[in-house]
């Protein structure tokens, strides 16, 4: 049987770039021509133009041992020097690298010169602690400047960081420390979240008591929360005693382009997280290239803000490495979007004059739920480009983002990529592409993708199939840490030399790509494979809906039936009877998409289960819809949520 995902949702709105935007756009149509004429030559040019190499490379791609790619392998560079020193040497030392804002309202502006000096001190301190090239350092920090400093200091000495999101439990941290055999943990006493200090160092203590490897020799602690913590003399060190007192002179060594840069565990939406390994030269090339062209970055005048935590790939590539390699000025915010008030993000956009904002659909939908009045108290006219990442963005959320946040006329780029791809793979280029709400659109120049049926044959027309990447790309993962077999099995076994992404997709008549959801989530109703993303988008297009998740639950007559979980917008949640709302939504989907997609049930709920990075975990909802014991919830942001939803569903 071949996989083919039926699609039916017609989304016909189109937005041409404005002439003013196009006239100043960084991206150029010729990038596509150059990449299609000579793909490897194109990437070699990008690597030379965007980065500074201590030893130039002569070979571009070595694909002699697939699926293990080597890019620019005989070249040498230092990643931290590319993000810092070279900007200072170019006379940009006084440019602000980071406008940092703490949740309680404290703030710091850090220039490139200051950031460089701090990273040099940290690099010396790490070396004094015995960290050498190839050693693993776990970083478990809140969104404070020291998180960026730590990552760059590790990179500067050729060691490997493994950043673990500060919301993870002691168990999750322990398993990541053990898996990577980390010898140092960098943490803080605590950080601010939702108006309170949340402890971090106590979680590290608990994790180290649990970690079986016993590999950690030291714990370096930043003072942030001022909360009481236990102290392990000899093992624990304060940042301000260790880093702040270290020498600010540090000569950076050049490392091979294929020197490992970091391990990062995926968000665990579908199951057990994988330790994704990325290396240096190719990774930095593609993140710098996409950051510049997809976000139309004018580093001399833009103020960029990516709201992702550094614990996710988006934080690695588009808070740390891409923006700093490009000499950007950016905002870094410690806290939650709604503390101390629901308009906090918009207050920060106004305060810093943010011009480029990059965030996730889950955040956009949560603001839609609250209504536009929260946004309208602030002046957002500085914004000139908006980006989205993490999940398919429903057309209605896209339109809301463009109109309510963007004022109605600025580009919105929907960027498809993964922890594994390292950098953006599919996206519009602003100023060039006619935008279509809900579609991630086209591969970026130099990237080749295709949509295949289960048997590997290309899917024709607008039918959906499986998204694959057909050629190696510079920022591709180099493996799963310590598990080459799982690497082959997960991504390469299915189609041989083509990378299997695990997402369903279709291509429309203009060649634009629409993501249909994860292959594991695709529903099979009476022999039709239906896309979760399309039915969810249809639900969100109804004016009463804020957010929706759709799953296929086993059904005696149809094989699977569509079951939807819907959160209503705040202003409708009180005055609508849930059973009327649910009937209305079933009717709406049947009318918009067709009778085949009509949900068997629509449950009105207050919450949806999400990972800590904000993605909907449909597999748990499927368990619920099928009346099963709910499966592994360890990667859920809030483990109590499933109980609340279960109670509402019954
Ligand atoms: P795990 O692989 O552990 O289950 P995960 O896939 O959520 O977790 P990430 O690497 O953070 O981990 O997420 C990548 C996935 O997010 C993609 O495969 C895709 O399903 C989804 N995604 C990201 N951006 C987009 C986008 N713009 N449109 C549609 N889907 C997106
Ligand atoms: Mg994934």
TrEMBL record:
<dbReference type="InterPro" id="IPR025110">
    <property type="entry name" value="AMP-bd_C"/>
</dbReference>
<feature type="binding site">
    <location>
        <begin position="193"/>
        <end position="196"/>
    </location>
    <ligand>
        <name>CoA</name>
    </ligand>
</feature>
<keyword id="KW-0547">Nucleotide-binding</keyword>
<dbReference type="InterPro" id="IPR020845">
    <property type="entry name" value="AMP-binding_CS"/>
</dbReference>
<comment type="similarity">
    <text>Belongs to the ATP-dependent AMP-binding enzyme family.</text>
</comment>
<dbReference type="InterPro" id="IPR045851">
    <property type="entry name" value="AMP-bd_C_sf"/>
</dbReference>
<dbReference type="GO" id="GO:0019427">
    <property type="term" value="P:acetyl-CoA biosynthetic process from acetate"/>
</dbReference>
<keyword id="KW-0067">ATP-binding</keyword>
<dbReference type="Pfam" id="PF13193">
    <property type="entry name" value="AMP-binding_C"/>
</dbReference>
<dbReference type="InterPro" id="IPR000873">
    <property type="entry name" value="AMP-dep_synth/lig_dom"/>
</dbReference>
<feature type="binding site">
    <location>
        <position position="542"/>
    </location>
    <ligand>
        <name>Mg(2+)</name>
    </ligand>
</feature>
<keyword id="KW-0479">Metal-binding</keyword>
<dbReference type="Pfam" id="PF00501">
    <property type="entry name" value="AMP-binding"/>
</dbReference>
<feature type="domain" description="Acetyl-coenzyme A synthetase N-terminal">
    <location>
        <begin position="29"/>
        <end position="83"/>
    </location>
</feature>
<dbReference type="GO" id="GO:0005524">
    <property type="term" value="F:ATP binding"/>
</dbReference>
<feature type="binding site">
    <location>
        <position position="518"/>
    </location>
    <ligand>
        <name>ATP</name>
    </ligand>
</feature>
<feature type="binding site">
    <location>
        <position position="526"/>
    </location>
    <ligand>
        <name>CoA</name>
    </ligand>
</feature>
<feature type="binding site">
    <location>
        <position position="314"/>
    </location>
    <ligand>
        <name>CoA</name>
    </ligand>
</feature>
<dbReference type="GO" id="GO:0046872">
    <property type="term" value="F:metal ion binding"/>
</dbReference>
<protein>
    <recommendedName>
        <fullName>Acetyl-coenzyme A synthetase</fullName>
        <ecNumber>6.2.1.1</ecNumber>
    </recommendedName>
</protein>
<dbReference type="GO" id="GO:0016208">
    <property type="term" value="F:AMP binding"/>
</dbReference>
<dbReference type="Pfam" id="PF16177">
    <property type="entry name" value="ACAS_N"/>
</dbReference>
<feature type="domain" description="AMP-binding enzyme C-terminal">
    <location>
        <begin position="534"/>
        <end position="615"/>
    </location>
</feature>
<feature type="domain" description="AMP-dependent synthetase/ligase">
    <location>
        <begin position="91"/>
        <end position="481"/>
    </location>
</feature>
<keyword id="KW-0436">Ligase</keyword>
<dbReference type="GO" id="GO:0003987">
    <property type="term" value="F:acetate-CoA ligase activity"/>
</dbReference>
<keyword id="KW-0007">Acetylation</keyword>
<feature type="modified residue" description="N6-acetyllysine">
    <location>
        <position position="615"/>
    </location>
</feature>
<feature type="binding site">
    <location>
        <begin position="414"/>
        <end position="419"/>
    </location>
    <ligand>
        <name>ATP</name>
    </ligand>
</feature>
<comment type="function">
    <text>Catalyzes the conversion of acetate into acetyl-CoA (AcCoA), an essential intermediate at the junction of anabolic and catabolic pathways. AcsA undergoes a two-step reaction. In the first half reaction, AcsA combines acetate with ATP to form acetyl-adenylate (AcAMP) intermediate. In the second half reaction, it can then transfer the acetyl group from AcAMP to the sulfhydryl group of CoA, forming the product AcCoA.</text>
</comment>
<feature type="binding site">
    <location>
        <position position="503"/>
    </location>
    <ligand>
        <name>ATP</name>
    </ligand>
</feature>
<feature type="binding site">
    <location>
        <position position="540"/>
    </location>
    <ligand>
        <name>Mg(2+)</name>
    </ligand>
</feature>
<keyword id="KW-0460">Magnesium</keyword>
<dbReference type="InterPro" id="IPR011904">
    <property type="entry name" value="Ac_CoA_lig"/>
</dbReference>
<feature type="binding site">
    <location>
        <begin position="390"/>
        <end position="392"/>
    </location>
    <ligand>
        <name>ATP</name>
    </ligand>
</feature>
<dbReference type="GO" id="GO:0005829">
    <property type="term" value="C:cytosol"/>
</dbReference>
<feature type="binding site">
    <location>
        <position position="529"/>
    </location>
    <ligand>
        <name>ATP</name>
    </ligand>
</feature>
<dbReference type="InterPro" id="IPR042099">
    <property type="entry name" value="ANL_N_sf"/>
</dbReference>
<dbReference type="InterPro" id="IPR032387">
    <property type="entry name" value="ACAS_N"/>
</dbReference>
